[in-house]
């Protein structure tokens, strides 16, 4: 059978087809002499040829002719899977003629017809049972493997969630982070549970898949928006007030104890709400308030001897008063003798006995003061050097009444004192340069220079002198100043000068005569 199949594989199949084609051509050229065979018989043989080997129904009949096999009814096998194909290999005789292989025709019926008398069929009656048993064992093993894999996968991808109720939220966050579980926190107000304690959870004492979400309800404590009826604190002792605050969880009410010469120890002094707009009958847990209670009268023994701090630094005094719980009050004054930062005098003399909480006042030197002089006693040239350490800025401005060179004003009052620690101002001192004098700008000034001249010469020096321009017919170059209402004279500081500008539209007389 293997020899037969080898004719249909690879190069052997192509060679076989070439040989058959050559035989067909030879038969056509010579003519078919075997008239004994009928065309119908040849057609049947062509129809009964299949690709591959075909099993014979009765292997014992080895001498049956091929034409006889084609006429016989093919025996149909009930189950092709139960058939075992075998073949006995025999040597072909050299004198046996080659059979022409016709083009295989596929048939729809699963019929196995005999082709080679050397082939036979052997049936195994236990094959179905063995095959069924094998399939069952394979299926059971596969199912067990799947179950085992699923169990291992489930153990690796799931984790048991503990009961977190009543525990801190931070503990839940730590557990979810370690076990790869997402956490969603829903916060709610709960009077019975402190803030950040777990109230409830979606999964408890059960397994959850890693990567899934665990939802927990966390407490925010008592509701701050809840309105609370305040008690009569004035009728309560401090211990009773603290107990009420704890029971109501009114943590925004602070208990403050302070000494009092009038109220007995432990008694109520006063109650105040921080937000003045909130009334006592509208008080809510979120509102801040203070309840004051007395610590009684504080009595100190005068057993501290005062030191002499004259000439010592302010820091030394502050250190001593802090150590002895003395209240320190500091005043400052300039001094020509005591350098800046050191004590000039003190309110309590040396060796006087004082008690805790007594007040000590010391005067500390700010150094030598800089006094603003009277600049009217100096000229403009002298003023800049008379500041005594202060910065002086001298200005000279036009003035209608003050003669040239005389003092007009100063920006800082005479006799003002400034020390090193003060912000020292710039003193502006003004001297007069008299009335403004208007120069003759005709024939040598163009219109474009007027702005700069009037600002630099007059406006920047305190004279509010302006000008107005009009245009006249003239032989002078266009844009040149040819007329002025005032020139070469003194004018008031708020004058307006009329200036005529040449149009340059007229020709000189000499040019006209030549024409």
UniProtKB/TrEMBL annotation:
PASTA domain: residues covered: 300-366, 367-432
Origin: domain of life: Bacteria
Composition bias, Polar residues: 1-10, 57-68
Sequence ranges of Basic residues compositional bias: 86-96
Regions crossing the membrane: 135-154
Name of the protein: PASTA domain-containing protein
InterPro entries named in the record: PASTA_dom
Basic and acidic residues composition bias: residue spans: 12-47, 69-78
Disordered: annotated segments: 1-106
CDD domains for the chain: PASTA_pknB
Membrane listed as a keyword: yes
Record keywords, A-Z: Membrane, Transmembrane, Transmembrane helix
